[in-house]
Design a protein that fits this description.
- The complex is a heterodimer of chains A (about 110) and B (about 120).
- Chain A is mainly beta.
- Chain A is about 0% helix and about 50% strand.
- Chain A is built from no helices and 10 strands.
- In chain A, strands 2, 4, 5, 8, 9 and 10 form a 6-stranded mixed sheet that branches.
- In chain A, strand 8 (about 85-90) and strand 9 (about 95-100) form a beta hairpin.
- Chain B has strands at about 5, 10, 20-25, 35-40, 45-50, 60, 70-75, 80-85, 90-100, 110-115.
- In chain B, strands 2-10-9-4-5-6 form a 6-stranded mixed sheet, with no helix packed on it. In chain B, strands 1-3-8-7 form a 4-stranded antiparallel sheet, with no helix packed on it.
- Classes of the chains: A mainly beta (about 110), B mainly beta (about 120).
Chain lengths: ~110, ~120
Amino acid sequence: QSALTQEASVSGTVGQKVTLSCSGNDNNVGSFVVGWYQQISHGAPKTVMFGDSLPSGIPDRFSGSRSGTTASLTISGLQPEDEADYYCSTWDYSLHAQVFGGGTKLTVL
Amino acid sequence: QVQLVESGGGLVKPGGSLRLSCAASGFTFSDYSMYWVRQAPGKGLEWVSYSSHDTTTKYYADSVKGRFTISRDNAKNSLYLQMNSLRVEDTAVYYCTRAPYGTAFDYWGQGTLVTVSS
């Protein structure tokens, strides 16, 4: 069982807005910068968000936020190329470990 | 541009050893914390190890503690993972990744495959 909880699957149509969530606790999501990672067909992960910072080259339809112990990744204007697995991760102070969510499979219908 | 290139993966028997390397370029390596992250076939991402920018702080996942050792050579812009007493369950693609905020990653390498099998 992962330390961070993500939806197993989310789907949306082209152009729709979807939000993926990452739920943790005060020792991890509530205290540290959370990263979001996109993985297409088990290729190398690519960072699409860390905290509320958008890496260079990532379209601005991706945005990140946090409320308490839940982080969210929102994709506004879903595109076919956004279909992928998405993982969240951050440090856990009590575990002295980097923790990951189990991943969300995003399907673009 | 930032590049991270892993090498050193391969096929090894249970109980064997491997040393992974990650060559960094395009940034001041000594300024950044670095991580090793792995992904077993069909599974999610799993953290393996962390090194602070100056090597003073290192952490390991419980699953590899006592068997794996992270190190870095800032003069050579390289990160390493010495893996001993390898187990079948260590079979995975191993990625090195840069952590500008210490807890979130911005760049990843392409990964190197480690297969532990008799």
